[in-house]
Amino acid sequence: MTDVQIKRVYEPADNGDGYRVLVDRIWPRGIKKDEAGLDLWLKEAGTSAELRKEFSHQPEKFEAFTVAYRKELDGSEALKRLLELAREHPKLCLLYGAKDKTHNQAAVLRDVILEELGGETG
């Protein structure tokens, strides 16, 4: 099974990261594209502008955010692409720009990917 981890894009790239995918819709401030160490920027995996504004990185809204974001992801091309990548690479690193390492879209994405992969028989 694929190892799916999450990491702030501001942290240095590491050999143990595996395939690195930025899952923010907006490019993170202060990071140069050639220094981010990305394999892919999958903008479509980020939350909608409306959901991002509603959540506003407030931990007390994370539960409602998670439910709404999962609905956005359901059947999306972005999720399909991430599942393909998870099947192709033994390690997948989802990168995000938020300061909160627990309450962010990459944490939700990781859970969704692992749930989807766990449901597969092999």
UniProtKB/TrEMBL annotation:
Pfam families: DUF488-N3i. It comes from the Bacteria. This is DUF488 domain-containing protein. It comes from Arthrobacter sulfonylureivorans. The lineage of its organism: Bacteria, Bacillati, Actinomycetota, Actinomycetes, Micrococcales.
